[in-house]
Amino acid sequence: MAAFKLPKAQCNRCSSKGDTLLTCSGCKAIRYCSKEHQTADWSEHKSRCTAVKSSRNRMEKEEVKLRNHPGDFMMPANPFNQPAECAP
């Protein structure tokens, strides 16, 4: 099976690619080649940034709940530490 390669990150404003792009500190998903491009793109990015940040926060809270789950008949304690099982 061939290895899957992620595409190189690119600036959300001008699409320039690189390894040293700045990451949005809010959503941590969008990249920019400069602070100027980040500022210029903010009016477009703001609503999506807020939505992604909110979703990320909810997922992090759910992960903490799962990791701290004591276990019961429906779910093992900390399911993240369980070995993967293949379906028959």
Write structural notes for this entry.
Keywords: Metal-binding, Zinc, Zinc-finger. It comes from Septoria linicola. GO terms for molecular function: zinc ion binding. Residues 67-88 are annotated as: Disordered. This protein is mainly α and 88 residues long. It has a domain at 9-50. The chain is built from one helix and two strands. It has one helix at 35-67, and strands spanning 22-23, 31-32. It has a two-stranded antiparallel sheet with strand order 1-2. The longest helix has 33 residues, at 35-67. The mean pLDDT is 88.
Sum up the structure in keywords.
zinc-finger; 2 strands; two-stranded antiparallel sheet; 88 residues; mainly alpha; 5% strand
Structural class: mainly alpha
Radius of gyration: 19 Å
**How much of the polypeptide forms β-strand, as a percent range?**
under 5%
- Overall outline: elongated
Read across the widest sheet, the strand sequence of neighbours is: 1-2
The helicity comes to: 25-40%
> What series of H and E elements makes up the topology?
EEH
Helix count? 1
Major beta-sheet overview = 2 strands, antiparallel
Number of strands: 2
Average of per-residue pLDDT values = 88
N-to-C CA distance: 22 Å
Poorly predicted segments = none
GO molecular function, one term: zinc ion binding
Region (Disordered): 67-88
Protein name: Zinc finger, MYND-type
Keywords: Metal-binding, Zinc, Zinc-finger
